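Here is one chain, start to finish.
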Amino acid sequence: MPPSPKITVVGSVNLDLVARVRYLPRPGETLSDATLSRVPGGKGANQAVATSRLGAQVSFVGAVGDDEFGPLAVEDLEAAEVDLSRLQLVDTPTGIALILVDDEGENQIVVVPGANKALDSERIEVGETDALLCQLEIEDAAIEAAAAQTDAFFCLNAAPAREVSEAILQRADLIVANSIEIDALGSSPLGALFALTLGEEGALLIDDGEEVARARPPKIEAVDGTAAGDAFTACLVVSLLEGRDRQEALERACAAGALAASREGAQPSLPTSGEVDAILRRE
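Its structure:
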């Protein structure tokens, strides 16, 4: 059996303040029957936890503030045995995400970046790794600094939607995005492998403009879609590093995303490789 892949995740870490509501409010509407929970989150931390649960050896590079939210935000990273030796402590409040989740599993999210904006690109250390995984809740300078340190496989999860520097796009080996996020990128290199996510319809892989794989997720009851995209991205990267062919890797990624959407919370919802295997056998 090949050794576990080594992955360095450079990205955001937040504390998610999650309110469960019957339905998402309309503009100007107040809902008074919500319940609140505090859950570790942030796309970078989510993907670090996810890749670790899927069997990778993971190092995480990010930033938290010296405040009460900092230790809470990294609890699940510690529990997943993610290497936090390169975590930066900065003089800016820890990032938070304000999340509303309704009874159908639909959500609305507002992110207050806080310490994530203060991640010092000059202090980033990628180290020896098989892959670098980044998202867009941190500044381009931090992503560029990380990508410049390694020739390893580089996956950019282009979320949340925004324009990205040409240097990052040219360096990316794999870009994971939905249709809105791809449109927001500004431009894209033909050489990158694209994973286009389609929600309930699944996802497809595009190589040099040609579709090379397509998959649909297993049927599940949606509960909370907050970290489904993070589970998808993490599982696709781990599966490719494990040497699985593109079709199998995409099928596993769709299954991981579906499992995450069937559970509450961000990091608590992220599946293990065994759980991905099990739901695929069920299909």
